[in-house]
Specification:
about 270 residues, alpha/beta, Rossmann fold, two-stranded antiparallel sheet, globular
């Protein structure tokens, strides 16, 4: 005997509730099986973690938070108390001869943040872009220039290094910022340069001098641009890029980086 329409109307909520309960327990069973077969590990130190730990263990999260805490100079990105700034800049900005108009940084290049960047950059761990983009995006949202940006300009790699690595880490970060401005690739590196990390600040500046150019037929006249990179140390690369873009007509040039290294470099 078929149930009446009234009986069906009364039973349907109970049936739906039972279906939701079954689906919930099914998901839990699947998550448990996945954890058994493929246990979650910390993206940085590779220790076992719970599924709810968001891909980093508690120790690594604490270290990462310590790397990203604290005030910094909005001109150069180095650590500086807000009370030590004069006209929004620290004393080191004059020594460094900054050629961009402001910077947003995710944190300091040390501990877990350093390990994440190195793995992302040199070990083909592109999945780590999730963490790095989150930090850079948060820094950008807290900057005074986030609404002024017309285009993002990733710091380019020379084509030979791009082939060696397989990707430009700065471009991946720029695309993951979650900002409505487009990402342009019209700034190019025209000279294969020595790696910067083994050089003194003076040699870094000489190493990248004249290494960048804007693609023929393109100009940035009247544009407000934001350079994107993973790390800045002496600002030599950002400064050289900024000078090249300003010569191409840009009226404002900002920078967004995941980390600032060598706090005393100039």
């Amino acid at each position: 005997m078929r149930p009446s329409r009234e009986e069906s109307r009364i039973c349907m909520p109970a049936i739906r509730a039972a279906g939701r309960t079954a689906a919930h327990w099914g998901r839990l069973a699947q998550e448990g099986l996945n954890h058994l077969l493929w246990p979650a590990v910390c993206d940085c130190c590779r220790t076992a973690i719970a599924e709810t730990d968001k891909r980093l263990c508690r120790d690594c999260w604490n270290e990462l938070l310590s790397c990203t805490a604290g005030d910094y100079c909005p001109g150069c990105g180095r650590e500086a108390s807000r009370y030590a700034l004069i006209d929004g800049r620290c004393a080191g900005c004059d020594i460094s001869k900054i050629h961009f108009d402001g910077i947003a940084r995710g944190g300091v290049y040390e501990d877990v943040l350093r390990d994440l960047i190195l793995a992302f950059k040199f070990q083909d761990r592109t999945e780590l872009a999730t963490h790095l983009c989150f930090l850079a995006s948060a820094a950008l949202k807290g900057s005074p220039f986030q609404d002024e940006i017309d285009l993002f300009v990733p710091v380019p790699l020379h084509w030979r290094r791009r082939v060696e690595r397989g990707y430009n880490q700065s471009k991946l970060i720029a695309k993951g910022l979650g900002h409505p401005a487009a990402v342009t690739a019209d700034l190019v590196r025209v000279r294969y340069t020595q790696r910067q990390w083994s050089l003194t600040p003076a040699k870094r500046r000489k190493n990248v001098a004249g290494a960048f150019a804007v693609r023929r037929g393109h100009n940035y006249s009247g544009k407000r641009l934001c350079l994107v990179d993973d790390i800045t140390t002496s600002h030599a690369t950002l400064n050289e890029c900024a000078k090249t873009l300003r010569a191409a007509g840009a009226v404002k040039i900002f920078a967004c980086v995941v980390a600032v290294a060598m706090q005393d470099a100039c």
